[in-house]
Records
---
Amino acid sequence: MTHADRPPASPSQPPSRTPIQAVVFDVGGVLLDWNPRYLYRTLLADEAEVERFLAQVCTPEWNAAQDAGRTWAEGVAELTARFPEHRDLIHAYDERWAEMVAGTLEETVAVLDTLRAAGVPTYALTNFSAEKWTVACEEWPFLADLDGAVVSGVERVSKPDPAIYRLLLDRHDLAADSTFYTDDVPVNVHAARSVGLRAEVFLDGSTLRGQLKAAGLPV
């Protein structure tokens, strides 16, 4: 799971007549309010220090290696060898990971609950470390109750690689043109569309509900 400044949302796809049979959610930034700043604002003196640390030490690229399958033990060891003066702060990224999640994005979870109550299959497709996915499912059990999840750290392939979208479709026997996907990172949405998914950029739960209604779903 990564967190970075994102480019503007891309235009919506033109409507399709194919009924939507399943809905797939990204997790960080869509279902969970994840941001490493939530933790490091409690550990560092001011916002400038937080931004410097996350830009120079525990960078998005370093975190993405765990999302791609590297273990946290390996990632922490590599980084503490390079920045021994920040040992405790680096370990905190692993050991206090749950404190980076402010909670669920309630509007989106309400949409998810409505879909499930209507019998619509729901899935997750997420860049997430395998170890932290286990933690997340324990902390927020609704994640474990989805009909399925494709997690980059488990599969060792990350969005926006088209292979991870094809894996989702193949594993769960989903037809791309009848599967709706929402993600807050536009490049991931473009990649989903490239393999035929009905994908839209996530802005907030209310917008998502409108997108799903426009696609003919009972939300």
---
Amino acid sequence: MEIVEGVGIGVAVLLGAFLFLFVRRALVTRSGGIIRLSVRTSTMLDGRGWSPGFGRFVGDELRWYRMFSFAVRPKRVLSREGLAVERRRLPEGQERMSMPADWIILRCTSRHAPVEIAMARSTVTGFLSWLEAAPPGAVSPRMASQDWPAA
């Protein structure tokens, strides 16, 4: 009887973990603005180190959450300020096996360190538009210094 109880507890723990993962994802994705995105977390081996997840645009930040994680907070936050795309390329070698064929890899530079992100070809255009745009309600520093006539 002890074996059956142990198996039952193990099954209950696994179901609880899966339920938590789904609730976590629902909480993060509830307000939209989600894209599928992989981030290269390790560059020790060529073509390896990619971690799947999803990104969420919040103001001038792109918050990246790992797909299979219990963390409620983002694993990585990329700020639009200081972020630039250095180059783009197609997956090479073993990368072709770890991501869909229509994905593009972008090597970005930021204030902290270079980062490689991969996303669908159709998502790259939206990402680049977000990167070049100012956040809603923001005033360009060049425009803020000018005196505007009263309306």
